[in-house]
Amino acid sequence: MEATMKAIRVGPGREFQVLAAPVPAPGPGEALLRIEAVTTCPQWDLHLRHDEPMFVGHRFVHPYPLGQPGHEATGTIAAVGEGVADLQVGQRVSAWRDAGHGRDGCYAQYVVHRAENLLAVPETLSWEATASVELAMCVGAAFLRLRQMGAVAGRRVGVMGLGPAGLIAVQMACAEGAQSVTAFDPLPQRREHAAALGLAGVVTVDPAAADAERFPVRPSRPALETIVDCVGLKASVEWAMDRASDTVQLFGVQREDYAFGVRHYTLRLSGYPGHSREAAEYAVGLMAAGKLDLTPLVTHQLPLERYAEGIDLLEQRQAIKICFRPWWEA
Predict the structure, then answer these.
(1) Which pTM value belongs to this model?
(2) Given CA atoms 59, 63, 66, 70 in this order, what sign does their dihedral have?
(3) pLDDT digits (tens, 9 = 90+) for 11-24
């Protein structure tokens, strides 16, 4: 009898189905991942729910691939395909790179991944602590660039937005030796959540209360030297450009043009450098050293059968990330 697994197929709006699907087999250069935890990516999950393009030229087409848009996953190797020598059955790994949304995704009990997209993670950490390695890799790529620019160590650093990426950015700024970190978010519950990390030298601020005396507009002496934007909105980026004395690192997804004015002529504006295994290994290294904790990103854990409820919580801003546990009973 053919082995089957649970997987979800997301439809328009709040529609989705929990299906019994065949357990896939890995081909050459692939590995079968038994998924223990998979976290939401609010960008994909919420844009899919509202049929809003993720970027220019993108559109969602139904039926959507099985298990998508899940891509931040962790678990153990269940089988390996021909030619895979650096992964072993039973090894604990996380997906560090999104396999692409044209193939089956990780909202399932098993998924086939290219072996090169999987990275060993510490077995001492909880499943929810290793699920979001892919996002940590993304933020890590920005911080590796900032390190090359000499823009974090000993600097007064700002972080715009305290969603999942912002919580990682705050921790990475501390790990990179920032003199201080000021984190901005309009939602009081997110500021409280960030403050609960208990990191020395970190303060949280409501951007609406960021007065001109504390955060003056250039060319007055700025309170912040480097700002990492994890929002992507024009107002957020331009606010940062007006107040950073040296560097603004862009991380939030850009959907509109930003205005780089004459007053910004001494500012270094850094675009996103792209994904890399180096950045994934950097992030996992921080996790292993106790300098990066991804568990605060997860505010709720649910079985796959409660997918719509989880996305409701994201939409209502009552959650930061949902961790779905495919082997939990509904």
Answers:
(1) 0.96
(2) positive
(3) 999 999 999 999 99
